[in-house]
Amino acid sequence: MRTNRNLILIFAGVLALALMSSCSKVKDIKITSVGLESLSPKGFRSADAVLAVGIDNPAMGFIITKVNGILKYNGEDFASYSADSLSVDKKCVKVYDLPCSAELSESVGLAQVMTLLKNRSLEGFTTDVEARVTLKNGVGKTFKFKDLDLNKLSNE
Q: Are 143 and 130 in contact (CB under 8 A)?
């Protein structure tokens, strides 16, 4: 009887260590870069794009879905966007293509867009983004981030 109890305690300890180590790896997941792979205008106020998103994932695989956000320029709404789902491989560093769609905010003029495209700089651009992350077993959580500096992400 005592041996069974010791085995249960040892098993519980090993399980707790495994869970703690996998949780620490989840905290180490990083977006390493963001770049514009392609841009296809759809009329005057919207476009489809493919972003190249670098992800360093030392943990288990997961799926990102329901990506929606607001792109801001110098604190003002510039465009709203949504993205397709993205399946992130386990334990790897990889650049993923992420198809997305965007629509300019009403307050943004085409002249402003052309000037910013000509500069080819992300200086002044931030984003608020919301996305659902689901593990392969179906467990998931929605994450929200505010004021992510795109210039810093593109330079990392």
A: yes
